[in-house]
Amino acid sequence: MRGRSSAGTWSGSAAPPQKVESLRPAKPLVDTMRVRIRVPLRHPFHPEWVTTTARVANGRCDVLSGSFAQLVEAAASGVQADCAVFALEYPDRPFLGQQERDMLWQAFQVPVFALLLDRKGRLTAWECEAQEGWHVGGAWTGEALWVHRLLASGWELDDTPCECGRPGRRLLRIRETPGIPRRDPGREELLTPPAELQRA
What we know:
Low-confidence stretches: 1-16, 24-35, 177-200
Strand content: 15-25%
Distance between the termini: 14 Å
Number of strands: 10
Structural class: alpha/beta
Strand order of the largest sheet: 3-4-5-6-7-8-10-9
Number of helices: 4
Radius of gyration: 16 Å
Helix content: 10-25%
Shape: globular
Mean pLDDT: 76
């Protein structure tokens, strides 16, 4: 399937996902998050999708989930996703940037959805096909300290209808806040697309 990752829509026949050996960094990636993810991890709008974690994935799967670093490792190992990729986000860590999102699209050729987990590994917010903010629910609670910090750093809760047509509140970015990084400095070596992706 081919389409625009920024809009979350796709159409037409897809060429086989590109093998991205050059995405593999020179040194093994170390994922510093030690959050235990509550399983099974399912997208509330697509409960029929079976999710496989990038750490144990091999070959083809319906949906691949993991941090950006884990997804890059999986792509370099030849793992393919048939339906979607779930990029897992965590409080107090830089969220997925557009360049990273585009790289995952180029690698897997399926829609990329960001899912926000709390510090206990529970699902709290998720993107839809429109990718206009995150729908909140699940373990989301306005009492959590990390939620207060997030809302103070350029995000807000919005009640206007989403373009996808589903009801409920969404978490929207309203401004870029100085001093809050969009990505880890250690990711820079991963953010230069290899030659074959630049030509795509």
